[in-house]
Write a structure and sequence with these properties.
Low-confidence stretches: none
Shape: globular
Strand order of the largest sheet: 2-1-7
Helix content: 55-70%
Distance between the termini: 38 Å
Largest sheet: 3 strands, antiparallel
Radius of gyration: 20 Å
């Protein structure tokens, strides 16, 4: 704890030495200013950040910007699922440069696939083992490019990855040994969705059955009030998971229903989405963590907020509920307002969402994770009447 406090103090001190960074931090002390904002401009600015996140490095992957440490190395995982976002945003904005960025990212990912068929966890240069969750997110990107180009290498790589994932699946349907922390987590519904996509393309039954086994395991982790056990990306705080991983779980379930037509998965997602919408509309803030009684704690996590806009948007389409529509509309406007504060800060951060609001919250403090802005773009696309990138 002392080491963490010293690191935090050092980052604050460094950040305050730069005038623009100082102005950005001060803007976060004033609390959230609500306003509709210009969603089209927000989309342009957010995609601009994603392009910078790719262009700043020595490869075609996406890194993230930190206020005191600068740009970091690329993440194969988040580069993978940024590809459908870049393609969809390019369609919406009529911008070929976003399409080009997606194709370059996919070609780079093909070149770094591991011999076992997976992709590494973490960032390039960290030399981590292949991880199931991360690999599945790269599969999303490769499938999106294959759909556009029909180039066989992308599908072949995706199929090889899926074969590795089902080979390391545990008998009860969960993934442990080849996954982050070596423990089973319900947010692997976000693995099931691309497995089902590959099944729909290839017809190989073992992809569908592997996804089905995991989905059944996930349903067994859900409480009567909709809360999911084993939903956090830590061991220490698994009793109050973050909205980021809760939203992964719900979004993955909704995707699986859209792919298979089986409504059980969507019903489980809605069972969790509804109490969160109720809490948000009552409190005016989506907290970073929620315990088994849906009691919130910690500062808002921007990635989780953007993801919940997507979940609530799809929930509104499924149910026609005005509660979901209102929650999604309010939250996207909050996110647009938070993004706009970034224009007071360093140019590299403009267009991005911070890890937390305020900037010094626990999740990715003083940083602008590329995945948060990816989901913000998806949320904006939803809010403008479309569907999020998959």
């Amino acid at each position: 704890m002392i080491r963490s406090a010293l690191s935090y103090a050092r980052q604050v001190a460094l950040a305050m030495t730069d005038a623009r960074t100082r102005a950005l931090i001060v803007s976060h002390t004033d609390g959230l200013k609500h306003g509709a904002g210009d969603h089209r401009l927000a989309l342009e600015d957010a995609t601009g950040y994603l392009l910078r996140a790719q262009r700043q490095g020595t490869d075609a992957g996406l890194g993230s910007y930190h206020l005191t440490e600068g740009w970091g190395a690329s993440y194969p995982e988040t580069t993978g699922y940024a590809i459908p976002t870049l393609l969809s945003a390019g369609d919406r904005l009529g911008r070929a440069d976003l399409h080009d960025a997606a194709f370059k990212a996919a070609a780079w990912l093909l070149g770094i696939q591991r011999p076992d068929g997976g992709w590494q966890g973490g960032r390039i240069g960290e030399d981590r083992q292949s991880v199931v969750f991360n690999t599945a997110q790269v599969v999303r990107g490769l499938l999106a490019v294959h759909e556009r180009t029909r180039a066989t290498p992308y599908l072949e790589a995706a199929v090889r990855a899926c074969r590795w994932m089902i080979a390391v699946q545990d008998a009860d349907g969960a993934w442990r040994g080849s996954n982050f922390m070596g423990v089973a987590r319900v947010y692997d519904t976000y693995v099931d969705a691309p497995l089902l996509q590959v099944h729909s393309i290839t017809g190989e039954e073992h992809f569908r059955s592997a996804a089905w086994r995991n989905l059944e395991w996930v349903l067994g982790q859900q409480a009567e009030n909709g809360w999911f056990a084993n939903a956090d990306n830590t061991l220490r705080h698994n009793d109050r998971p973050i909205t980021h991983t809760l939203a992964y779980t719900m979004d993955g379930l909704l995707e699986c229903t859209r792919t298979t037509g089986d409504e059980r998965w969507a019903k489980a997602a809605l069972k969790a989405a509804e109490p969160l919408a109720e809490r948000y509309l009552k409190d005016g803030v989506l907290h970073g963590r929620y315990d088994a009684r849906w009691r919130g704690s910690e500062h808002a996590i921007m990635t989780g907020c953007a993801q919940m806009v997507i979940v609530w948007s799809h929930a509104a389409q499924l149910t026609g509920s005005s509660q979901y529509r209102e929650a999604a509309a309010r939250l996207i406007d909050q996110l647009v307002s938070i993004q706009a504060l970034g224009k007071q800060g360093p140019p590299d951060a403009v267009g991005a969402l911070p890890g937390s609001f305020p900037l010094w919250g626990r999740y990715e403090k003083f940083a602008f994770p590329n995945w948060g802005t990816k989901y913000f773009v998806d949320a904006l696309l939803c809010a403008q009447g479309g569907t999020s990138a998959r």
